[in-house]
Design brief:
heterodimer; A: 2 domains; B: alpha/beta; Rossmann fold; 19 helices
Chain lengths: 370, 497
């Protein structure tokens, strides 16, 4: 009996101690978050080492080359930022659709459609200035939004899940690009994968100093981050969209117009993706290419998942991924490795974040059960 | 003989079972009673091997184990009959019967079904699909299957929820026979005290995860209620059920709702044409077995299911289409039974719910929350609490507080689903207040007693049609039960209705 009591008190003591401990942790939530993120990064590093081992390359050297290739000079930083802009636009747009619990995998095709519409809008002009550029951007936004609306209509009225329609529409968009490049829009005399006739320099987006990124594009991406943040967190539209995503049946009962709101979410995301496509045309390639989207749409899905679809981490993850993508160009040149390794690393990072997140949930459940 | 020793089952901080010890002897009928959330189902799931207890032991005929698996439970003759029969409606009866049984030919299965049916006064056509059976027949089939598998201890979880009073009579006779003649152990899990009093050799009362009393005949009903509800029961007598609402507005007052030749079409079936009218201040209960049409009636009235024909007149305005947003603006408010699934946003906070339901109040949201939810509905939760964190009672309070004051026609599915007696009383007193203020309430509940206790008129549904509308004075369990079972209304009501 006595022993039992003393055990009980010692249990009691350890419980209060552990409570104090959790309190001390929870006082710095940001620190805890950073700690878990660090764990995820360490895991990702470990897995990357495992993947690069068979190729015989030193993993640390590989990572050093990747980072150096993306950050090593002002020019390289400019390239990384040029990749950051479309990636951020797409990822921020995907936050909107994900808030409505939509998996808008068609974002890739929406980038392509934006680029096509942008190029089409520029075709009547040989030279131009700010009005033409604005027109071309608006056309890009329209193209992306319409392409997304198509997936949205199929979802809302045809009960076709947006993953399937989006994937199909991605291929259609790519097919349209190829047809345009090798058909109606081919360069006089030649038709090649190198794309359409380049647009005039007067229609290019103005560059930021020696860097290949445009200040206008950067400003648009920043504006998109702030705008979507305000829209989702501060406006009643955002609250209603969250409600629709959370429970469409209840949204009907609250008369929130769930169908209309889903379509709006699709179009907003598509518009931002279309803008990304337009910027690829106006600021980066200055023509329509078959690979105009550079798979930024798919990469943006990875970014969104890694950020657990919260706005805060998105710009930073986008920057990191852009650096990896630009840096990977150096891999074949300096180390004889394939540049797709950067994609492998990106995938590993997302998986690591998931694993660590799952581990965290499991630990929490165990703590609560105990 | 089965002995449960000091069973604990904890879900996080919730102690569903908190040290339960229990002995079940063969040949006896036990009733396990208690409020919602008292831990009845958890205990029975432990016994059937579906839930692993946190601690404690189970003694089965001399063998002691720490937990059971469904297979182990079956080997020791424990069989559980769930509230909703766990069968496969698309498959024929004999295939359902054969599930889990040793390998047999179709002919052998037919013979076994025939033999068991004969012994137990049942009748099954083995080639028919289970979907053609009523809930009561499906239960019986499940019972037959468990007996065939060698069950000697039968656990029945709320077996009378979806069946007619007559089917209930037959089921109880059968259970009596099994206990008295074949020495089976029967455990009846129920919240209907009348059933426990009628059937059981011993009543086990559960409260807050523990067995607080074991009563033996002769029973004292007052004592039973006291044991079940504790302090809450004292006010029960004072606040007797029944609509405190005075008789609604005079017959010549303009009706709140009138249906002329209305046809309603749901995803599975349609019904009508129907005529019906309701006055301001009236409480109308819908009675009917599951799937008899009462669900479609409510969903059609608010515009969630289609109305392909007829005219719906609401406060003098005629509608030939039932558009949900239009009717909602006109004061029709639908409250579904499935709160988290259908009516609330689990991850949104209470404050956000209020903001969504009352868009005009966004500038003074916190003050409005305080007056609406806390003061009027006694919803004691921080406005930043998420809906999923609320208890069932608080979820229902939140839903009630989201109903705008101008709602003239309230349509409610099972208003007290999953609520304990105290919360249920609060809900009903609020609904009666609304009716007294002139609102019309149309509701259904699978609990016939609740329908009878709170309605001025009862509309009975049978076979996807409104069979009859019975006035409060004539609405007794026998009359409504007979109508629910499909008896001819002229015969039951004497042709006068």
């Amino acid at each position: 009996m006595k022993r039992a009591t003393s055990r009980a008190t010692s249990q009691e003591k350890s419980r209060t101690q552990s409570q104090e401990k959790t309190q001390a942790w929870s006082r710095f939530p940001a620190l805890t978050e950073a700690g878990w993120l660090g764990a995820a990064l360490l895991l990702a590093l470990g897995l990357t080492v495992l993947v690069t081992l068979p190729s015989g390359a030193s993993p640390f050297e590989t990572i050093a080359v990747l980072l150096e290739g993306g950050l090593g000079s002002v020019t390289k930083l400019g390239r990384a930022l040029a990749g950051w802009v479309p990636l951020t636009l797409c990822a921020v747009g995907l936050l909107v659709t994900f808030t409505a619990r939509l998996w808008n995998i068609g974002v890739e095709g929406q980038v392509v459609m934006g680029a096509i519409f942008c190029t089409a809008a520029l075709r009547p002009f040989d030279t131009g200035g700010v009005p033409e550029i604005i027109l071309a951007m608006a056309a890009g936004i329209l193209g992306g939004a319409l392409w997304a609306l198509l997936a949205g209509l199929l979802r809302v009225f045809g009960r076709v899940h947006e993953i399937f329609s989006g994937l199909g529409l991605n291929f259609v968009a790519l097919g349209v690009t190829l047809w345009l490049i090798f058909g109606p829009w081919k360069r006089p005399g030649v038709a090649s994968m190198s794309g359409t006739e380049p647009i005039d320099v007067s229609l290019w987006l103005p560059r930021l100093g020696p860097m290949s990124v445009s200040w206008a594009a950067l400003a648009l991406a920043l504006a998109a981050i702030v705008g979507v943040g305000l829209l989702l967190r501060r406006s009643s539209w955002g609250l209603k969209l969250r409600a629709v995503g959370e429970n469409p049946k209840a949204a009907t009962l609250f008369a929130l117009g769930p169908r209309r709101r889903l379509l709006q979410a699709f179009m907003l995301c598509g518009g931002l993706a279309g803008l990304a496509g337009a910027i690829q045309v106006l600021g980066v390639y200055h023509r329509l290419l078959p690979s105009i989207s550079s798979s930024y749409g798919y990469t943006a899905l990875l970014v969104g998942m890694m950020a657990s679809f919260r706005l805060g981490p998105v710009p930073f993850i986008c920057f990191f991924f852009a650096v990896l993508t630009v840096g990977s160009i150096q891999l074949p040149l300096q180390m004889g490795l394939d540049s797709s390794l950067s994609g492998v690393i990106q995938g590993i990072m997302v998986l690591s974040v998931f694993i660590v997140h799952g581990l965290r949930l499991w630990l929490r459940q165990r703590r609560e059960a105990a | 003989m089965i002995v449960l020793q000091d069973i604990h089952k904890h879900y996080g901080r919730v102690r569903a079972n908190d040290g339960v010890s229990l002995t079940l002897e063969p040949g006896r009928i036990y009733a396990l009673v208690g409020e919602n959330g008292a831990g009845k189902s958890t205990l029975m799931r432990v016994l059937a091997g579906h839930t692993r207890p946190t601690s404690g032991t189970i003694d089965l005929g001399g063998r002691t184990v720490a937990f059971l698996t469904p297979t182990l439970a079956r080997e020791h003759g424990v069989g559980m009959l769930y509230q909703d029969p766990l069968d496969f409606p698309a498959m024929p009866i004999w295939e359902n019967f054969q599930l889990g049984a040793p390998k047999r030919t179709k002919g052998q299965v037919f013979d076994v079904i025939g033999e068991l049916s004969y012994r137990l006064d049942a009748c099954f056509l083995p080639d028919e699909a289970v979907s053609s059976l009523t809930v009561g027949e499906r239960q019986l089939l499940e019972l037959l299957r468990l007996l065939d598998l060698g069950a000697t201890t039968l656990i029945l979880d709320e077996p009378t929820t979806g069946i007619t009073p007559e089917q209930k009579r037959e089921l109880f006779d059968l259970l009596m026979k099994l206990a008295r003649e074949e020495n089976h152990t029967i455990v009846l899990v129920t919240h209907k005290l009348s059933e426990a009093l009628e059937m059981a050799d011993a009543i086990l009362v559960m409260r807050q995860g523990a067995i607080v009393a074991t009563l033996t005949p002769p029973y004292d009903e007052g004592e039973l209620v006291l044991r079940m509800f504790g302090d809450a029961a004292e006010s029960e007598g004072a606040d007797a059920p029944g609509p405190a609402t005075p008789r609604p507005a005079a017959l010549d007052a303009p009706p709140r709702l009138r249906l002329d030749n209305v046809v309603m079409a749901g995803p599975k079936y349609s019904m009508g044409p129907m005529r019906f009218s309701a006055r301001p201040g009236e409480c109308i209960g819908l009675a009917g077995l599951d799937g008899s049409g009462q669900e479609l009636f409510l969903r059609g009235l608010c515009g969630l299911d289609r109305m392909p024909g007829g005219t719906l007149t609401l406060d003098g305005r005629a509608y030939t289409t039932n558009d949900f947003p239009v009717l909602r603006r006109a004061g029709v408010h639908f409250v579904p039974a499935d709160r988290l699934e259908m009516a609330l946003f689990p991850a949104l906070t209470l404050r956000e719910h209020i903001a969504l339901a009352f868009p005009g109040r966004s500038d003074e949201l916190d003050a409005f929350y305080q007056s609406q939810c806390v003061e009027r509905f006694n919803l004691r939760a921080h406005p930043q609490t998420r809906a999923s964190e609320l208890s069932g009672g608080n979820q229902q309070r939140l839903l009630l507080s989201l109903i705008p004051d101008h709602a003239a026609l309230l349509l409610m599915e099972h208003p007290t689903r999953g609520l304990d007696a105290g919360s249920a009383r609060q809900v009903w007193s609020h609904l009666h207040d609304r009716c007294r203020a002139g609102a019309t309430l149309i509701f259904f509940s699978p609990d016939l007693d609740e329908v009878l206790a709170h309605s001025h008129r009862v509309a009975v549904f049978y076979d996807r049609a409104m069979a009859a509308v019975v006035d409060r004075a004539r609405a007794t369990t026998e009359v409504v039960g007979a109508l629910m079972a499909g008896k001819d209304p002229d015969q039951v009501l004497g042709g006068g209705q």
